[in-house]
Amino acid sequence: MPVTTVPLTSVPLKPVPGPRGLPLLGNLPAFGRDPLGFLVRLRDEYGDAVTWSLGPRRSLFLFHPAHIAEFLAARERTFELLEIGWAFKQLTGQSLILSKGSDWRRKRSLVQPTVRPRQVRGYAAAMVECAQAAAGQWQDGDRIDVRHQMALLTQRIVLRTLFGNDLGDRTRALSEAMAVAEHGIGAELRNMTLFLPGWIRTPGRRRLLRAVATIDAEVHRLIRARQRHGGTEDRDDLLSRLLAARDEEGRPLTTQEVRDEAATLWAAGHETTSTALTWTWYLLSRSPEARERLTAELDEVLGGRPPTIDDYDRLPWTRQIIKEALRLYPPAWLIPAVARDGATLADTRIPPGTVVWCSQWTTHRDPRWFPEPTRFRPERWDPEAPDPVPDHAWYPFGGGQRTCLGARFAQVEAALLLATLAQHCHLDVTPAAPAPRVGLLLQPPTPLHATVRRH
Ligand code: HEM
């Protein structure tokens, strides 16, 4: 399915001041109360580029795809990453996701090849196998928590693709440690303790550190085992590929760097995809026509056999469903960066220190680019659809050089899991309109109950 985009034309940038907000705190309380609603109001009441204050910092919010594309592309040159706080760093260390400049370029060039399309081909069979095992456990009429089930499934897959079958009975303890660490990071964000100095140890922070220590010990043990047995050439998991990677001067990643990149791929690579799949089931359970077309496509292309990576291109409707779910409920919903000296957008100077933001939530639901923006309509992605979508009006994976490293992995995984599971059953999600829970990701509420309807 070709991505339906129209080229960008130059759009002038004319920032207008947004709501005044409170002294010192600025718009922080209004944003904190209802972040999604606040951003939609900014867009609808003020326009495409709005200045506002987040605490003492001046911020600029961008809503137009032309400005968003330019901003995302300019980040490596004229913007800094916004500090994401102490907690996230405990888990990812100094991996590529928090690195800058030449350090980031080196790490990205070493890690990127582990998730190229050719490598993702190799992970596809494990994805389908894990999905078949999950579907095999659900009986007709069972009530399941979709969010929990999707999280278990993508967790299993990321651990298989990272470490092969080496984890054995430690899989559970390790998955639990990751869940505790991720919960701790989300809690810091919700409680606004994000930027407290690292030496302040709340009970939540102590739990987080214990969980990270469990993850560290296990990942280091796996790395040592690979190093002891020499050679990783015969293995095709991500950990072996990270250990075998060499930069332009032939240097490998250090042991600590391998640990940090493995933890980052793990953390970045499972909850994002499970969230996307959970929203997909929710949307499908509200759309019988989309579901029927899905069943028809799976019957026609697969005829009852499990999908393989070669089927990915042959399942356009399955991919359109995922794409539309990522539009309506983008798991990653906010991208900030801080302007450096010399930053410009659309030939307009951006004062240094300004935090520039864009949000997939607001752009993906903008009626200018998506007629009937709140409706789930996978057919809007038909190649012959009448309304072409501008570049960067859909950007669940970000953009520019720092675009999501695992975008291909995630899209293949989501499509193959949906195709495998939907061959066996559909999930009828009961709550009518669950409001997203806003954290690092836009999550459905938990539990999100569904009844299994086996075919
Ligand atoms: C539906 C699933 C996913 C979504 C929605 C998603 C979204 C994103 C977004 C929005 C970014 C920031 C991009 C930017 O700043 O322009 C990102 C970065 C990243 N993602 Fe993903 N992601 C997903 C799955 C994955 C997977 C499966 C992996 C790994 C296997 C992964 C690894 C990464 C890494 C390492 C980065 C940092 C890249 C860098 O800073 O150079 N993601 N992702």
TrEMBL record:
Keyword field contains Heme: yes
SUPFAM superfamilies, A to Z: Cytochrome P450
InterPro entries, A to Z: Cyt_P450 (IPR001128), Cyt_P450_CS (IPR017972), Cyt_P450_E_grp-I (IPR002401), Cyt_P450_sf (IPR036396), Cytochrome_P450_Monoox (IPR050196)
Pfam families: p450
Keywords: Heme, Iron, Metal-binding, Monooxygenase, Oxidoreductase
Signal sequence, start to end: none
The keyword Transcription is assigned to this record: no
Family membership: Belongs to the cytochrome P450 family.
Protein name: Cytochrome P450
Organism: Streptomyces ochraceiscleroticus
Lineage, broadest ranks: Bacteria, Bacillati, Actinomycetota, Actinomycetes, Kitasatosporales
